[in-house]
Design brief:
The protein is built from four helices and five strands, in the order H-E-E-E-H-H-E-H-E. By secondary structure, it is an alpha+beta fold. The chain has one domain: 2-Layer Sandwich (HIT family, subunit A). It binds guanosine-5'-monophosphate (5GP) and zinc ion.
């Protein structure tokens, strides 16, 4: 999508620190990290949010989670644990409307009962 920030990051038109890429999925460091490790995972196919993504092509959600799992095993963050968050719409706090999954790790995370 032409005017989408994350589509531009995928194309390299806006610089980012890439940490993972395969045919369908791209991952890069969040510019404003909320934990010691904070990576954003996105599908290369543009969608507005995870609800739209699921309605259009549910397999795309699985592709992103497969990439997250590969990354977690590769980087050995599964043992200590990590968190995956996707914000949807205004009340969810979504600010970029290209579906993305925050992967937070590297320290004890607070909130959500922790
Ligand atoms: P949201 O609030 O939509 O769930 O998450 C958007 C995330 O994108 C935020 O955590 C924000 O820090 C990150 N972000 C916004 N603009 C950029 C950018 O230009 N580069 C990178 N790497 N992250 C960005
Ligand atoms: Zn996009």
């Amino acid at each position: 999508m032409e005017d989408c920030l994350f589509c531009k990051i995928i194309k390299g038109e806006i610089p980012s620190t890439k940490v993972f890429e395969n045919e369908n999925v791209f991952a890069f460091k969040d510019i404003n990290p909320l934990a010691k490790g904070h990576i954003l995972f996105i599908h290369k196919k543009h969608s507005h949010d995870v609800v739209e993504m699921t309605q259009k092509e549910p397999a795309d959600v699985a592709e992103v989670f497969r990439a997250i799992s590969e990354f977690a095993l590769d980087q050995k963050i599964k043992e200590d644990g990590f968190r995956v968050v996707t914000n949807i719409g205004k009340h969810g706090g979504q600010t970029v409307y290209h579906t993305h999954f925050h992967v937070l790790f590297g320290e004890q995370l607070k909130g959500f009962g922790a």
